[in-house]
Design a protein that fits this description.
4 strands, alpha+beta, single chain, 30% helix, Alpha-Beta Plaits
Length: 77
């Protein structure tokens, strides 16, 4: 059964790593994952989190001026 996840895309690897640090400090569970297949983006990695953490994660990232360039819902096998 596929698992539904929220995927946050950023323009650079540096931006992904900085966003991961922000989420880590806020104790928001996340994973650094390869960019989903079929998704056009400049960076080859992304952040993945559970749907219930979406609003908190976006709030923390916004407060740190590190908003993602795109937010997707994705089903992971």
């Amino acid at each position: 059964m596929p698992e539904r996840r929220i995927v946050l895309l950023f323009p650079t690897t540096h931006a992904v790593m900085h966003a991961a640090q922000i989420l880590e400090r806020a104790a928001i569970p996340h994973d650094i994952v390869p960019r989903p297949k079929g998704v056009d983006a400049d960076c080859g990695i992304a952040l993945s989190l559970e749907p219930g953490a979406r609003e908190q994660a976006l709030g923390e990232l916004g407060a740190a001026s590190r908003e993602p360039s795109r937010v997707l819902e994705h089903e992971r096998p």
